[in-house]
Specification:
Distance between the termini: 86 Å
CATH superfamily of one domain: PAS domain
Strand content: 5-15%
Helix content: 55-70%
CATH topology of one domain: Beta-Lactamase
CATH architecture of one domain: 2-Layer Sandwich
Length: 975
């Protein structure tokens, strides 16, 4: 949420108001934090004080518990002493007097009573010695019935007359003598004397209440005349119940205090009380302390915390008021100055004595004022310069518009066909002058190109007529070659099928033989594994026999060890008997030490000897019990040892029987191993013979495979040659059609070029202008040429279904044939002549492939005598011999033999030559085509990129007369 929308605009516009609100929020925050922190600290200190009070009450309760347990221990010691066990009244009384003299001063009296007779047999109090047990105050007859030899009976506190006529609060314990149910010890201790051991603090009242919540002890002497003894506590019983069930705790009491505290003149309006249970009894210790005294430090911390918080808030307010007012005044003054600058007064006074952020802000405004003055001056100057530049650009634009109009008129004339129009480049604008010059150069080049194209169209028309006549003769020869090769292909196919059948039968026989050999090898391997396994079984059985012998030996050793263990157990029995005797004697010694301790006890260390005697006695009893337990366990071990010995002896006999059986298994395994070795030898001989037979069969299969392969290759080559001949016939038909189309398109091209008006004279035309890279050649298709030599007659024949044809000049296609339906507007667009036959569009392009090598027509033309000379003279594209770029090279050695040789006759015959060469066309074409067609597809695909290697001249005596030749397809030998 955006605070600017919430805060009123009146506050947002005044810094002093915002600063004051911020100080107010800061002061309130500091005050709130201070009060909360003070309250937290006060609460924490208060909890610590309460914990100390609770710990104090717990310590008092623990001390009272120890005092009570000490009294119970004392009377138990009396009851278990040897003197009391002797039941000698005189000795018992003397011992009681000795104890009274040497024990704590808290002992009030000790008596030995006969509960059956109801008399006191011995006592340290002469007043009750020999009297009835009824003389014992606060000790009813039921007390001896409730007392046992382990748990004493305890009376309620009561007041008893003491020595020198002083009263004292006492408590009485009664315990039955062990082993004598009609005898009891009565022990009276001064309870008031322990009350003086309570920690006494100023205005601190400590009281102890019993299960009836009546006071049994305090730290103030029970008040006047023991007024507090037995009085009800009169406070909240929840505090006492909590101490008895949950443990020590501390409570704050206000307004309704315990009534018993009035006896001690304790202020019950507000005080802190802590309670703790005395374990082993139903008593509860309660300590009381006024609240002001208990929480004095807490109140001090609370007061100083509030004072520090208030002082901090006041200081924040004072410092904020001083700083905020000074800052607000400076900002308001700067705001007024900025308003004057906004109104256009840039001469305002922005000086200040401050060097802090406000002072730097004044300096920044002053720098801004100076910068504004400079920018205003610069803006005025720039405006004037921009106005002058605008006028200059307007003049330039006017001149450019006039020049552009002149250029436009000349370009329109050139577009209408007037290639003699030129632009005058006499303008002052350099860029426009360059455009005029470049345009004039372009028109000159276009004019020259159009003239050359016109001349070229005439030449193409003449060459097309010659190609049509030659292709008819080649097509007739190709048909004869096709029929002969087809017969060869059928015979090779039948031979191949017979060899394939023989090959399959021999392969099946070879496979069966190999399977027999493999099975024999597997049987031999299994027999060998059987031998190995039998030997391993023998070794394992021998190892088992040895292991059983070792086990039998170890079993005998185990029996011997068990017998020795029995002897050791007997010795341990004797040792335990000795320990038991020592324990019994130690027990007797402890009893004697206890008796002597009772006789010789004196001073502060009067119980030391007695305690040691008790510990020795307890230790001797523990030793006796441990000895008995060890004896029982040894008896059990002895029984288990005898049982183990019997089992080991039985196991030894079983091992002997198992050893005999293993020996029998060893003998059987030896017989099995011998039989397996004999089986292995026989199987190895069978496997060797079978492998030799399989090898012979493999040789026969290999020979049949070779014969079948040769037959299959022959069939394939014959089929390839037949297909090539068919493709060649088809290609020649298309060449004828393409040549006719080319002638028509040449006429259309000439008509289209006549629309252009040029100044180029016919004498100025360079016939080699477009043939800078080499000699021009007319390519009439990749699939027409049939070129070969004597060494290629047995090669592979490959058919090429690509019927790409065209006329190429160097590396670029000059023109492509168009369909008869082509209009005069599309004279230069290629037309696919194979579209009517469903072939791809690019196949019919007679001008697509560059010329790579010359074909036999070139050589035939050179050898045709007068007919060749007529052809050469009628070729309008043939340049003079002197203009040839490179020396002529033969396209194929076999195709360019000596014309006078008897074997060098061109199978296709020269154009217009004698008819006697026609009889040799089929034989020559068959020998040549087998190798030539294998290169057709590769030649047609790479012809577009190998223009530099396409220039081939015919080698021979008349090479100079055949610079420009017609090629039908690609030659076979390219390398």
């Amino acid at each position: 949420m955006d605070l600017r929308r919430v805060v009123p605009a009146a506050i947002r516009r005044r810094y002093a108001v915002k600063f004051g609100i911020a100080l107010l929020v800061l002061g309130l925050s500091v005050g709130l934090i201070g009060f909360v922190a003070t309250a937290g600290i006060t609460h924490e200190v208060e909890e610590r004080v309460q914990a100390d009070q609770t710990s104090f009450a717990g310590q008092e309760a623990q001390g009272l518990q120890m005092w009570n347990e000490q009294n119970e221990q004392t009377i138990a010691t009396f009851a278990h002493s040897d003197v009391v066990a002797s039941d000698d009244p005189a000795a018992i009384e003397q011992r009681l007097l000795d104890w009274e003299e040497h024990l704590d001063a808290d002992i009030f009296s000790i008596s030995y009573a006969d509960t059956d007779e109801g008399t006191i047999v011995a006592s340290t109090d002469s007043d009750v010695r020999g009297a009835s047990t009824d003389e014992l105050e606060s000790v009813p007859e039921t007390a001896f019935d409730e007392a046992t030899a382990e748990v004493p009976w305890v009376s309620e506190p009561y007041v008893l007359d003491g020595e020198l006529g002083e009263d004292a609060a006492v408590i009485t314990y009664a315990l039955t003598v062990p082993g004598q149910d009609d005898r009891a010890i009565v022990y009276t201790a001064e309870l008031e004397a322990y009350g003086g051991q309570f920690q006494d603090g100023e205005q601190v009242a400590t009281v102890v209440v019993d299960g009836d919540n009546e006071v049994v002890l305090d730290n103030a002497g029970y008040g006047d005349d023991y007024a507090a003894l037995g009085e009800p506590y009169g406070g909240d019983d929840t505090l006492l119940d909590t101490a008895r069930t949950e443990g020590a705790s501390t409570w704050e009491v206000s307004g309704n205090g315990a009534s018993v505290l009035d006896t001690y003149e304790f202020d019950t309006d507000e005080y802190v009380v802590s309670s703790a249970r005395v374990y082993g009894t139903d008593w509860v210790v309660l300590t009381h302390e006024p609240t002001d005294q208990a929480y004095g430090f807490v109140n001090t911390v609370n007061d100083w915390g509030y004072i520090a918080t208030i002082v901090g808030v006041l200081m924040i307010g004072m410092v904020g008021a001083v700083i905020g007012r000074n800052t607000a005044v400076s900002i308001d003054r700067l705001t007024d100055k900025a308003g004057q600058m906004e109104d256009g007064d840039l001469d305002v006074d922005l000086e200040t004595k401050r060097i802090d952020n406000i002072g730097r802000l004044y300096s920044g405004f002053d720098s801004m004022r100076v910068a504004l003055r400079e920018q205003i001056d610069e803006a005025e100057t720039a405006r004037e310069e921009a106005e002058r530049e605008r006028e200059r650009i307007a003049e330039i634009n006017d001149e450019l518009e006039r020049t552009a109009d002149e250029y436009s008129d000349v370009m329109e004339a050139a577009a209408d066909g007037d290639l003699t129009a030129r632009i005058e480049a006499d303008t002052d604008n350099e860029a426009m002058a360059d455009i005029a010059t470049d345009f004039n150069v372009m028109l000159e080049e276009i004019e020259q190109t159009v003239a050359e194209l016109s001349q070229f169209a005439s030449d193409v028309a003449t060459a097309s007529e010659q190609v049509t006549a030659s292709s008819e003769e080649v097509r007739s020869a190709s048909q004869q070659v096709t029929e002969s090769i087809q017969e060869i292909s059928d015979g090779a196919e039948r031979q191949n099928q017979s060899l394939q059948s023989v090959n399959q039968e021999m392969s099946a026989l070879s496979t069966t033989t190999e399977e027999i050999a493999a099975s024999s090898n597997q049987v031999a391997d299994i027999a060998e594994q059987t031998v190995s396994t039998g030997q391993e079984g023998q070794e394992a059985a021998r190892g088992a026999m040895a292991a059983m012998d070792e086990i039998e030996t170890e079993a005998g050793d185990a029996v011997d060890e068990i017998e020795r263990l029995e002897e050791e157990v007997q010795q341990i029995d004797q040792l335990i008997a000795t320990i038991s005797e020592i324990a019994r004697q130690t027990n007797m010694l402890a009893l004697n030490a206890n008796i002597e301790a009772s006789r010789s006890a004196s001073g502060e260390d009067e119980e030391g000897f007695s305690v040691v005697a008790k510990e020795v006695k307890a230790l001797s009893e523990d030793v006796a019990e441990a000895a008995d337990e060890a004896e029982d366990r040894l008896e059990s071990i002895r029984a288990r040892t005898e049982q183990s010995a019997a089992e080991v002896q039985g196991t030894s006999s079983d091992i002997v029987d198992a050893g005999e059986r293993v020996q029998e298994a060893v003998e059987a395994l030896e017989e099995i191993a011998e039989l397996a070795r004999e089986t292995n030898v026989g199987v190895q001989e069978i496997s060797a013979a079978t492998e030799q037979q399989a090898a012979s069969t493999q040789e026969v299969v290999a020979m049949v495979d070779d014969a079948a392969t040769v037959s299959e290759e022959t069939t394939s080559e014959a089929e390839n040659v037949a297909a090539a001949a068919e493709e060649q016939t088809t290609a020649l038909t298309e060449v004828t059609n393409s040549a006719s189309n080319l002638s028509e398109q040449s006429g259309q091209l000439s008509a289209a070029l006549d629309r252009f008006e040029t100044d180029v004279e016919e004498a100025e035309l360079d016939p080699d202008a477009d043939l800078e890279a080499g000699q021009p050649e007319l390519d009439l298709g990749d699939d027409v040429a049939v070129v070969g030599d004597d060494t290629d007659s047995g090669g592979d024949v490959d058919t090429d279904t690509d019927l790409d044809t065209g006329i190429t000049f160097d590396e670029e296609t000059a023109f492509e044939p168009v369909d008869e339906s082509t209009t005069t507007d599309d004279l230069l667009d290629p037309v696919d002549t194979e579209t009517e036959r469903g072939g791809p569009a690019e196949r019919s392009d007679l001008l697509a492939d560059p010329v790579e090598e010359s074909d036999l027509l070139a050589d035939g033309t050179a050898q045709s005598g007068s007919g060749a000379e007529d052809t050469e003279q009628s070729d309008p594209l043939a340049p003079d011999a002197d203009d040839a770029g490179t020396p002529a090279e033969p396209a194929d050695d076999s195709a360019l033999e000596d014309p006078d040789s008897s074997t060098g006759v061109d199978p296709l015959g020269p154009i217009g030559g004698a008819g006697e060469a026609e009889g040799e066309d089929v034989e020559s074409a068959t020998a040549i085509g087998s190798e030539a067609d294998s290169e057709w597809r590769t030649e047609s695909e790479s012809s577009d990129t190998d223009g530099e290697d396409d220039e081939r001249d015919v080698d021979g005596e008349d090479a100079a007369h055949t610079d420009d030749v017609f090629t039908f397809g690609d030659t076979a030998d390219e390398e």
